[in-house]
Design brief:
heterodimer; A: 455 residues; mainly alpha; globular; B: 1000 residues; alpha/beta; N-terminal domain of TfIIb; Rossmann fold; Dimethylsulfoxide Reductase, domain 2; 5 domains; six-stranded mixed β-sheet; 39 strands; 25% helix
């Protein structure tokens, strides 16, 4: 079976004669290749070392991280924002593109949704790691208690807590609802055993009846409607962690759209980083085609321009404001001790994506993979630049300091990637990585069109 | 389950009580047990203060020792004491830790020269040592630091009683030159006393009186009084500082002259000559003076000193026109081989200025037990080397550390049969002793001081000895008895002190801290001794290309205070460095050597070499390098790394090891006598620097206004109401009194007068000790994690926003010969619209009814957002459990029980000493009245020698704090345009340099 040629006509997917979609997609979950096992072990090792380091940090004290006044936030918050950003593309693809009837999303939405859930789960670890005494975290939760404690609803950190929990809930529900018909397929194909039991329970007795399909599609529609504002709100709220402060470099009205665009930008890059190897390893080129990658590339190019515009605007407003500390903060951002991170950020997020103007680049999978990794690095550095440079060069020059991440923080950063990868690798072996029913639906529509069938 | 009835209940109660009792049998239970019989003066929860005397340096400042449940927790100045008048220097503040230091000797020990050390009972130790002394009392010597008159008398009595033991009083900073000089000039051996209060021009010939010297707190207080703007609308006294490097005194001066090091004497003489020729000869109109000064060529002196002739003429002119000018003689760092001439020249200049008898007086006699000149110490060392000393008793001194190696003290010690040390702590000398008979800490001992005739200050114990130690007085009495000394007084040393004070009402003296009837100063005039003054410049020894300036550390002095945690942790007021030693060199020198901040260089003199990190700065001459003393201890907990797991590695370097042991021309010690060469080593040792730039970038933290603007009440042009930068359309006017609950009677506020602030940092140490702020140690300080709630930011000028990335984290804006240093004490501003409060999720920081931005420590979960959002960077985070880790041993005894000790992971900051507010509130409530103005004194306010800080209720319009803030010309708010509505009003410093600089 040769994959169809790239381009708009790629929607004309082959007609599922013998359920090739069932077979090919479910094949991903079958067996344990050495490669997969090696990756799992690698991820597990990365995670375990981070758990050990975290235990060490908890026992010894946060001092083992690189904080120095006046930089009180570091790699943990950077990585937190990074993962929240990654967790964006999933909902965007599932909900917004669903509402816009962008059918090409069907091949990637499952992977993206899974990525969202795992990224938000990863992100959610970081506030706990960041505060050092994680057993105190429940102080942030408003519930009636005999200690008479309440929380401060004026604090953006509290908004953040709510925003992320909401987002996590809706992402999980969305992910799960979309999975139900596929789980039924998996159930039907699974041999007896624990997997069969798992699929049976999770597929909630799905029979594929018209009534069930009707309910399902309505649910998806409504959930999409609910999730759409969240795509915009979550990262807006995260951006307010910074924008609501008074710090030069943080206190900016552009932050919400800037962060949302950045999150979509980074999220799409992460989808590419994940789906390109998946497609390659399990030979899914006929389902996830170059056309999908090209569309995502266009998104990346577009959001890269928004991000670039935001960067420019920040500098412009700093200059235009005439406020000395704003100007100093931004001058030192570009030419101060952290100049390297700033220029890495600009190169990765603004300069490098410009290759996507060329179709040859948009369809070159190897180049896309490299580019997506570059963008991921760039987006991490974007948060590094925003958080560290602003804090280290704040209002009182006498108190200025330099923050250098410590090995402990870098271990935990590596651990977060391991945790995320581990979840994704396990996901590949449990759930269909592509929404089978949606791809089928697409193919049948395409066939009907090809046959001139009326709709 | 059946319903719980009465019987059942009683059964259960009985069972649980029995279980509890049984458990009690198994483990010792620690309980807070109330006093069975309440001691008369102790009420739990109420502090008791005792008057005493500070012994950290020989100044003799009065103390009020604040004790809680019989533990001293804080040292404050005694307001009734004429010398320090309620204030206390940082070094004195830090001394609270002394009795609690973890490395203290816990009892007498017999030590072998192979290093083994065994505890012995006092009886045995005293008997053994006593027998040795008794064998031949004349071959016994006592080498010790300066002590009070009564104790000195006991030691002298002991020396005589055992048959003529030799006693040498040894202080590294003995001011031999000054004592000798006053003998030369006035025929009376004493340290002159200065009173700057009424002066209008002060010339500091390298005295650096703010960082040390004979009486820093007193002189700073008088200096501030002489410049009090309320009394002197023209700005009052001007200060001209002469020093090769910008010292703290230079930083507060209106003019800084930076001649070659060692020029002080010739310059003073040249000034005297110019004035004398000009007909000004108030107290120096003698033939000897005329003859001396006739040979002085002022132009040649100026040229050799590296000054322009005009500078000298200008200064002479100003001196001639001043009504009450005074010159301050060279301090330790300017003590050359020719120091006696230099000091004498300054005293002569004072006589010519007519300051003698006004701003400068000579006490009728020198203090009892004054330190001997270095020559006598060296003579004793020679005797020891010759084997003429069988028993050497060393007290209050650490000569192996504080004498240069070339004095050969350590080798001489080996020739002494029995070495007895009474040190409280292991130090370089006491570890070499055969016997350690530890004396009690000063806070555990009786004593007295008479720094000036008639000013008698008493020292009473405020703590029972924590270890098996004896007061030094008792130790000598007991030793005398054991050695069969004749005429040993009966009873304890306490009784001896009481007998010595029998001419006073002892109880009243104890309550007051002493008897303060200053005797009339000696009526002296210039004698024939002035002819001994030589006008020549000193010649520095050695081939090096730099003159080596070794200066006393601001808090560690000669190294005897290096053990005190806060003397290590508090940033030096000039360099903002802590915990280590550094070598200061000019920016040009550093560039020439190819080194920068933190690079280790090897500094070599003919006497030795050390490897030390570079601190480049603008405020030092190119031909000078400077190293502070006090570092490089090999034996001590905080002063060396011995307590940090790196046994024996010195923290910093001992600058004294670079010096020659040769005495100066008149037998005094020489601190400025060597040239040094500097070589880069390629190694790097980061220094703990708490402030990385001295550029305030025009942000107006430390503002200065001209005298003209002051006179015009702030209306100096376009700025209008707020006289300085920072006032613009964004800065909204407000009254801090509104930032409290309307029902509250109080809104606490503060004013900080930066015109009075000298940057001495007494407030920093006082705040830290009052509020249980932990020290963090060198490694953490290097990482900018210091915990001090109050810091003193030091800026040069208004600053500008040119470039200025902090790639050069050192003060590179200082310029030789210019001084515009601004000190900005920065602490929590208790904002009315605090950025920290709104961002804290668990409401761990909130605005109290009385306007205080309060911290609830056990609500803090450590998001640290508040610290990020604080516009003044005054919040501090406990990254580790500093409080537990850095206060080993008995040190937790010094914690203030009124203040929570914070644990790991908690944010903390200044809360305007809320415990003191609540203490005052309780008293006021008991008396059914509101808290009166001045009743609450914050720790920083209390310690400030210049009274730069005022605190009070801003809702009370009659309060001092409101009156202070009502200064249209000078008041400003830090970062006003952010509209955080701080409760602290700063008062701008006044630029006094513009009116008559040098020319005039």
């Amino acid at each position: 079976m040769t994959p169809p040629p790239p381009g708009a006509e790629a929607l004309a997917l082959p007609v599922p004669k013998d359920s090739i979609y069932n077979r090919d997609i479910m094949a991903v979950t079958k067996g344990f290749s050495l490669k997969w096992l090696a990756l799992v072990l690698l991820a597990l090792g990365g995670l375990l070392q981070a758990v050990g380091v975290f235990a060490y940090q908890t026992y010894t004290g946060l001092g083992v991280a690189g904080y120095q006044a006046p930089v009180f936030w570091g790699v943990y918050i950077i990585t937190f924002v990074f993962w929240i950003g990654i967790g964006h593309a999933g909902t965007l693809i599932s909900a917004i593109l669903f509402l816009f009837r962008a059918k090409w999303r069907n091949a990637i939405n499952r992977g993206a949704e899974a990525m969202t859930v795992f990224a938000v789960l990863t992100a959610a670890l970081f506030p706990l790691i960041h505060i050092g005494r994680l057993w105190k975290f429940y102080f942030m939760i408003p519930y009636p208690n005999q200690r008479g404690l309440w929380v401060n609803f004026k604090s953006p950190l509290l908004w953040d807590l709510f925003a992320i929990n909401t987002y996590l809930t809706i992402s999980v529900v969305f992910f799960f609802v979309g999975l139900i018909p596929d789980l039924a397929i998996a159930r039907d194909r699974a041999p007896n055993g624990i997997k069969k039991l798992l699929y049976t329970v999770l597929s909630l007795g799905w029979q594929g009846t018209g009534r069930q399909w009707k309910a399902h599609s309505r649910t998806v529609l409504h959930l999409s409607g609910l999730a759409t504002p969240l795509v915009l709100s979550v990262h807006s709220v995260v951006s307010w962690d910074f924008a609501m402060s008074v710090l030069p470099g943080w206190h900016a009205t552009i932050f919400a759209p800037y962060f949302v665009a950045g999150a979509i930008f980074g999220g799409f890059a992460m989808v590419l980083t994940l789906m390109i190897p998946v497609r390659r390893i399990w030979g899914l080129e006929h389902i996830i085609t170059d056309y999908h990658f090209e569309n995502m590339s266009r998104f990346i190019l577009f959001t890269s321009w928004i991000v670039g515009y935001a960067y420019t605007m920040e500098y412009f407003i700093a200059w235009y404001s005439g406020v000395e500390w704003e100007q100093t903060s931004f001058f030192l951002r570009a030419f101060g001790p952290y100049w390297l991170s700033t220029w890495i950020m600009i190169f990765c997020n603004v300069v490098a994506p410009q290759v996507l103007w060329f179709k040859s680049c948009r369809t070159n999978v190897h180049l896309l993979f490299v580019l997506s990794v570059i963008i991921n690095i760039g987006m991490w550095f974007e948060r590094y630049v925003i958080i560290i440079t602003s804090l280290s060069r704040d209002f009182v020059p006498a108190a200025w300091g330099i923050y250098i991440p410590s090995p402990v923080e870098l271990s935990i950063l590596v651990g977060s990637f391991s945790f995320f990868s581990l979840l994704f690798l396990l996901f590949l072996k449990v759930f269909p990585v592509i929404a089978i029913t949606e791809v089928k639906e697409l193919a049948i529509h395409a066939r009907d069109h090809a046959h001139g069938g009326a709709h | 389950m059946p319903e719980l009835n009465r019987r059942h209940f009683i059964k259960l109660v009985g069972l649980s009580a029995g279980a509890a009792a049984a458990a009690g049998c198994a483990d010792p239970v620690e309980k807070l047990v109330p006093y069975v019989i309440q001691p008369e003066v102790i009420t739990p929860g109420i502090a008791v203060e005792y008057a005493s005397t500070c012994t950290e340096c020989p100044t003799g400042c009065g103390l009020r020792v604040r004790t809680r449940e019989a533990r001293p927790i804080k040292l404050d100045g005694n307001p009734e004491h004429p010398i320090n008048a309620g204030a206390l220097c940082p070094r004195g503040q830090a001394a609270i830790a002394r009795p609690y230091l973890p490395q203290r000797f816990d009892g007498p020990r017999r030590q072998g020269r192979d290093g083994n050390s065994q505890p012995v009972p006092w009886q045995e130790a005293l008997a053994a040592v006593g027998a040795k002394i008794q064998a031949d009392g004349a071959r016994t010597a006592i080498l010790g630091g300066q002590v009070g008159p009564t104790l000195s008398g006991v030691i002298d009595g002991f020396a005589a009683g055992v048959g003529g033991a030799e006693r040498v009083v040894y202080e590294p900073f003995a001011y031999e030159a000054l004592r000798e000089a006053s003998e030369w000039v006035f025929g009376l051996r004493a340290i002159p006393v200065f009173d700057l209060t009424e002066t209008d021009l002060i010339v500091d010939f390298g005295s650096n009186f703010m960082e040390g010297g004979p009486s820093p707190v007193e002189l700073m207080r008088q200096f501030a009084a002489a410049r009090d703007l309320a009394k002197h609308p023209n700005g009052g006294a001007r200060l001209v500082s002469i020093s090769p490097r910008l010292t703290l005194t230079g930083a507060n001066a209106d003019e800084w002259l930076a001649p070659k090091p060692g020029s002080e004497g010739p310059l003073a003489l040249a000034l005297a000559a110019i004035l004398h020729r000009g007909g000004m000869r108030a107290g120096g109109d003698t033939a000897a003076v005329a003859q001396l000064l006739s040979g002085v060529d002022a132009k040649a002196v100026a040229a050799e000193a590296g000054l322009e002739a005009g500078q000298l003429e200008g200064l002479a002119n100003r001196l001639a026109h001043a009504k009450n000018a005074v010159a301050l003689p060279p301090g330790v760092a300017a003590t050359t081989a020719n120091a006696t001439s230099a000091a004498a020249a300054v005293l002569l200049l004072n006589a010519i200025l007519g300051a003698n008898g006004r701003a400068m007086t000579l006490p009728a006699s020198d203090v009892a037990g004054a330190p001997a000149p270095l020559s006598e110490v060296l003579a004793l060392v020679e005797k020891m080397k010759a084997g003429a000393i069988d028993v050497l008793v060393i007290h209050d001194a650490n000569p192996i550390y504080s004498l240069p190696a070339s004095a050969g003290f350590e080798a001489a010690l080996a020739k002494v049969g029995t070495v007895v040390s009474t040190a409280t702590l292991p130090d370089e000398t006491s570890v070499k002793a055969d016997w350690v008979l530890p004396q009690s800490a000063s806070l555990e001992s009786w004593g007295d001081a008479e720094p000036r005739p008639g000013i008698r200050s008493i020292q009473q114990p405020t703590l029972r000895p924590l270890h098996d130690t004896l007061e030094l007085g008792d130790l000598f009495l007991e030793l005398g008895r054991a050695a069969g000394a004749s005429d040993t007084p009966e009873g304890s040393f306490r009784e001896v002190v009481q007998a010595a004070w029998s001419d006073t009402d002892f109880r009243r003296a104890l309550a007051k801290g002493g008897v303060f009837n200053a005797a009339a100063p000696a009526n002296v005039s210039v004698g024939a001794g002035v002819s001994k003054i030589e006008a020549r410049f000193p010649k520095l020894a050695g081939p090096g290309e730099f003159a080596l300036v070794t200066f006393p550390h601001a808090y560690q002095g000669d190294g005897s205070s290096s053990d005190l945690p806060w003397a290590q942790e508090t940033p030096d007021p000039t360099t903002k460095l802590s915990w280590s030693s550094w070598v200061e060199m000019s920016l040009a020198t550093a560039e020439k050597l190819g080194v920068t901040f933190g690079d280790a260089v090897s500094v070599e003199t003919p006497n030795g070499n050390v490897e030390v990190s570079v601190f480049p700065r603008g405020g030092i001459r190119d031909d000078v390098i400077a190293i502070p003393m006090g570092g490089g201890h090999t034996e001590s907990h905080y002063g060396s790394l011995a307590g940090d797991g790196f046994e024996g590695v010195a923290r910093g370097v001992n600058a004294i090891s670079l010096l020659s042991a040769d005495a100066g021309a008149t037998g005094g010690r020489v601190w400025l006598g060597s040239n040094a060469s500097v070589r880069r080593t390629g190694r790097f040792q980061r220094l703990a620097l708490s402030q990385w730039t001295d550029n305030q970038r025009g942000r107006g933290f430390a503002q200065k206004i001209s005298l003209a603007a002051l006179a015009a009440n702030g209306h100096n042009g376009a700025d209008g109401g707020e006289a300085h930068e920072g006032g613009n359309e964004f800065a909204l006017p407000y009254d801090p009194a509104n930032d409290a609950s309307p029902e509250s009677e109080y809104r606490w506020g503060m004013t900080i007068d930066t015109d009075r602030c000298t940057g001495c940092s007494a407030c920093v140490v006082a705040c830290s000790i009052e509020n249980n702020v932990p020290i963090v140690g060198e490694e953490q300080a290097i990482r900018h994690r210091e915990m001090t709630w109050l810091r003193i930011d030091r800026f040069i000028g208004d600053g500008d926003s040119e470039g200025g990335e902090a790639r050069r984290p050192f003060p590179d804006r200082e310029r030789v010969g210019e001084t515009d240093v601004r000190h900005s004490p920065m602490l929590c501003q208790q904002c009315g619209a605090a950025p920290c409060e709104s961002v804290c999720p668990p409401i761990a920081t909130y605005h109290s009814d009385e306007g205080i931005n309060a911290m609830v420590y056990n609500r803090c979960i450590g998001t640290r957002y508040c610290a990020n959002n604080c516009t003044y960077d005054v919040r501090r985070f406990n990254y580790f459990d500093y409080g537990r880790e850095n206060w080993p041993g008995n040190l937790p005894f010094m914690l203030n029980p009124d203040v929570t000790a914070r644990g790991q992971g908690v944010m903390e900051k200044c809360m305007f000493c809320v415990q003191r507010i609540n203490g005052a509130r309780q008293i006021a409530k008991n008396e059914g009245r509101p808290i009166a103005d001045g009743e609450v004194v914050t720790a920083c306010q209390q310690a400030c020698p210049t009274q730069a800080i005022h605190f009070g209720n801003t809702k009370d319009k009659q309060s001092e704090v409101v009156k202070q803030a009502d200064d249209e010309a000078r008041k400003y708010i830090a970062l006003h345009e952010l509209n955080t509505r701080p409760a602290i009003t700063y008062l701008a410093a006044v630029d006094r340099s513009d009116d008559e600089r040098s020319h005039g």
